[in-house]
Every structure is written in structure tokens, then in C-alpha cells.
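Q: Hi! First time doing this. I have a protein sequence and I read that you can turn it into a structure. Is that right? Here it is:
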Amino acid sequence: MLKKSIIVIALAVAGVTTVHAQSTPAKKDLAARILKAQNAGIEAMARSLVEQPAVELLGNAGNVLPTRVPKEKQDAVAKEIQGDVQKYLDEAVPVIQARAVKLAPTTIGAMLEEKFTEDELKQILGIIESPVYSKFQRMGEEMQKSLTEKLVADTRPTIEPKLRALEQSVAKRLGITTPAAAGAGPARAPAKPASK
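A: Yes, that's right. Below is the predicted 3D structure, encoded as C-alpha cells:
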């Protein structure tokens, strides 16, 4: 009898899971509408995927440039490298964005259909399409900028000395004499008024 009860419970749980996971035309439509509303975010994610290695490459090139290129040619080479990176971005960003948008229904859309009920998808869509939510989203950059400015101003007196100590420590380990390591040099003079 116990074995039979366990089988019945297992089948019931499997049935509930299957009902929840089953996709319907209505769920497909709701998931598609959610994805359409999130299209800008999907494209931004794809853009950052392309930009990240380009930014790293620019940083590495900037570090190597002074040691590999004569000083009189450094500006020209830096501009050429920036042009190469921009060409890469111009070519790669549209390709990866289009592919991300195309893959979204089979990845994100499938997850939405599987993990949420039709009613839950309607609720999500209601939130996403809400004018208040849209207004909140548009303020995101402004809110982040406000917090960042305040955070930098509030923590500058604490963080700048730590950063200078780190720079000096790294320079010392590399055997480099920096103006900060040798005493207060002209390169550090502008930082003092900013920390007021």
C-alpha cells in the first residue's frame, strides 16, 4: 500500500510539474511580448559582450605602446588602433545583437514559458509595460550618476591615499621610481584640491 501511495504521489507531482512546464500559444505570445519589451536590454548585453574584449585590448595596447613604439609615432599609432577597434565594433556589434535577439526566444523565451504560469507571465508583462516602470528605468542612468558622484566625493579622502599607497607599492616592486614615490611630484598636485 505504501509503495502504491508513493507512486501515486510521484505521478501527481510529475503531472503538476508537466502542467506548469507545458507551453501554450498564449504563453508563447506572452513570452514573445516580454522579450520584445526587453529587446534593448538584450541588445545592450550583446554590445557589452563585444565591447569587453575590445576595451581590454585597448588597455593592453596602451600599456605596451610606450615600450614598443617611438614617442613621435605613439599618437598616430594610438589613433590607428582606436580606428581598428571602432571598425571591429561597427562590424561585430550589429551581428551579435541580431543573433542575440534571434536566440532570445529559444533561450530566455523557453525559460519564461517553462518556469512561469500564464498568469505570472501576464503579471511580468504588466510590470514591464507599466508607464511607472518605464519612467523608473529611464531614470536609472541619472540615479546611478547621482550615487556615483556622491560616493566618489564622500570616499575620495579615504580611498585616494590607499590608491597612492598601492601605486607606490606596485611601482616599488617593479623597480619604477614614480613622482609619488619620490615625493609629491607635479603629477599628483591636481589630486589634492579635488579631495577637499
